[in-house]
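re: ur question from earlier - yeah i can do the single chain one, its not a big deal. heres the input i used so u can compare w yours
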Amino acid sequence: MFSTGQLIFALLFVIAFVLIIVFAYKKDTKLHQKNYKGAKWVLVSFVIFIIFLFLVKGLLKN
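and the output i got, formated as tokens:
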């Protein structure tokens, strides 16, 4: 399906990509904490809303 060279390239690409993302995130951590203070509550609200939709769907299906 994939040649050995393609698999090696994919593996190296994924490793490099993850390292760059981790480095960039660590560099901007203080800025993120300052600018996105209430972002976790938006995520919690979204998850609760999705769970609510599944519960309503389950109750109306019966």
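The chain has a mean pLDDT of 93. not sure if urs matches, ping me
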